[in-house]
Input
Amino acid sequence: MTTQAAGALAPAPAQRKRPIGLLLVAVPVLLVLWLIIWPIIAAMIQTIWLPTSDGGRGFSVSSYQFFASDPYSRSNLAITLWTTGVCAALLLVVCLPIALYLRFSDSRIAAYVQGLAIFPMFVPSIILSFAFIRVLGPNGTVDLLLNSVGLPKIKSPYLTPWGPVIGLVWDNIPLTVLILLSGLGNVSNQAIEAARDVGAGRFALLWHIILPRISNSILVAISFAVLGIFSAFTLPYVLGPAAPEMMGPFMQRTFRDLFDPTNALTQAVITFAFCILFGLFYVRSVAKNRTP
Output
């Protein structure tokens, strides 16, 4: 009885290992708190704890009131939301067929298609911008080819809102394809064959078998793409119009050219507020998968 009682009171192996597991994650958690969470909190405090006329500091939301009342600031936020929404939709339209082809194709061409889909991951944004300008810019390769056969020039998307859209979609194709392809790994060939045996067509297979099983992967892919696009700087700065501009170039210009760190921090906090809404979708998706 004594031995049994001692065994019952002894901690389980999982309980003994729990402090070790907490120590393993302590360093990255502390780094996240120090390098990410604290700067966000400090920025929020600086935008609401502003200098007063008597030389002190006090609570004020004047910087946010200025952003909400300034037509230029609102137009920059609107073009950022528009660009993000259009890019997310185009990424889904472009990447889902590629991922489906790579998942269910056994041909040798699929390996080359996968290589082309992943290739933009290894191209820096500034090189992509230069290539875009040389190909689709004024007097670029496309214009020269059209002129050589007697056709009129096209209206270049360079320095228009569609310039960043094309660049950002191209830049985010690899990650989106990889996430969707990972989700398609959960679709078994047996389920596809069983549905075909009962007469399901391609659309029925996609709608009733494939999409329900990869809905979580689609949500994760769109969340990652939206977070990257909303805070993008290089491609919108190089390829986009001078006005309206996306929030990334807008924050940089406000801080560097206008020497206005308070309003630049306000724009950063507003950008973070929108990004955290999309980030919550990703966190919810991960938590849902871990729920037994």
The chain has 13 helices and two strands.
